[in-house]
Protein 1
Amino acid sequence: MIFLAVTLGFIAENIREKITEHHKAKTYAAEMVNDLESDTSQLRKYINYMTNAAHNVDTLFQLLSAHEPKEILSGKLYWYGLFAGASAEFVPDDATFEQMKSSGSLSYFTHGSVAKKVAEYDRLCRLMKSTDNSDEGIYVEIRKVRSQIFEFKYNAVANDIYQASRVLYDRKRIDSFINTNPPLLTYDKTIFNGYEELARSRFFDRKVSAADTLYKHAVSLIGDLKKE
């Protein structure tokens, strides 16, 4: 009888632990879904911003490849050159993941593939962060070279138009600026060449690809967590 009572007590305790772990897994899964939905919202904005920057910088390359700087309307150079200094940062909402990792709670997920996907998502986040960090030095240098080509007040006008267009897109206003001819500080081809090289070294396409991979993984993980 004593043996039976001890055995039943052990089984009951094990069942309670399983119920508790299952409840915690559901709670963590729901919290992580919220975190990931916040991340995907961020990533969509990041991808759109960097894709736009990449397209505009490509246009700058095409213009300078086909013409000397003096032959191009300076409004075009101000506008397309603006995007070489594009900057965005993705900061994952990883509070739930860090809590689970520190407490060893990832094992609560009953489907092993979920824990693996969570770990892979963390790896992809760190990889994207590393890519952004490696760009910091180039970003600083490109701002320095930009200050040798573009006069600040006209560059500020171009930036104001762009920021306004992110809220309410106004193609007429953009075209109106592009077709103006504000003065440049220099037409030195060597300086322009240095600006192009720095812009090319920012690898916007690589940033977009990394963000897109992370976004797709997040969407897939959200689906798995909802099943969990």
Protein 2
Amino acid sequence: MAYPTVSAPYGLKPINLIGGQVFAGATRQFKIASAYGANLLNGDVVKIINDGTIEKDTGTATATPVGVFLGCTYTDPSLGYTLFSQYWPTGTVASDAFAYVSDDPDAVFKVAVTAAGSSTMSSVARTAIGNNSALIQGTGSTVTGDSAVSISATTATTNTLPIRIIDVVPDTKTASDTFVEVIVKWNFGMHQYENATGV
């Protein structure tokens, strides 16, 4: 039996860089527009928009990510002092809001596998390595601040899918060839820094 049990998706968690490059956990700060009207949760996929701020990338079968949201800082309008937060609460009015984003195009992430089109935990076999997958946009928690983004258990060679599976996570497998977590990277040309088309 696997340990620990993965009971729900938790977003994308950066763990390394491709090819054994040194990974220092670095992030880049991006401006969040005051009153931006969506929750940004730790592990959500985000993108740059044409005013230079970031927003949640809600793509599934396609996406244009700049990276993964890992928290933010802003002056809370009701408290009057700066907060360092796991998530951005939708509609917050703060002119000094910045997101911390894992934006390296070579970043490698751990992510849960769910059934196609849902947040129900699922799995893939080792044969999924090298294939592509869609993102599943689950509803995260404003209690924990954690995302519920996952990837689909249905994999394919389709070159427009945003995620490439590069490994499985043996520590949480539920059977000899049943893996509920995988290691992934952005598929070629999907990351905004590597896409020849601007924002």
